[in-house]
Amino acid sequence: MKPAVVEFLRNATLLGLLNLLTFIIFVIVGLVFLVLRAPSRLRKRVAWGTVPLVIGVAAMYFEYTSSEHRGHTIEAVASIRRDAVIQGMLGVLGAAIFTLPALFGRQRNF
To answer: What is the DSSP letter of 102?
Structure first.
């Protein structure tokens, strides 16, 4: 497991590292709000939740399209595309974990 993670981080682009950083921050904040069950507005949560989603989809798109350049072996293209899918999933999970506590916590109506 460790060599795969090290290889993933070694081959990550700047946008991929930004995606990983926003994923970690938004997951921590989402879990803190879930534990505290603090009141929050759903609209504000959804608006902020789009940040990791957009960064994740952008990272997935750019990594996936970079795999189409010539000169890559089939194994390298498969590895790049696998990393692109992982980047997209990180963005979606970061957005979901950040917005879900707003559905389960106390709601503020104002």
So the answer is: H
Establish if 67 belongs to a structural domain.
Answer: yes
- Counting residues of the chain whose pLDDT is more than 90, the rounded percentage is 27
Are 102 and 48 in contact, with CB atoms under 8 Å apart?
Answer: no
Q: Which two tokens stand for residue 61?
A: 């798109």
Residue given tokens 């994923």 in the structure block: 23
Q: Is residue 110 part of a domain?
A: no
SS3 state of residue 108:
coil
Furthest-apart CA atoms within the chain: distance in Å: 57
Half-sphere exposure of 11 (CA within 13 A, CB side): 19
Query: What's the rounded Cα separation, in Å, for the pair 10 and 23?
Result: 18
pLDDT single digits (tens) 47-58: 888 999 999 999
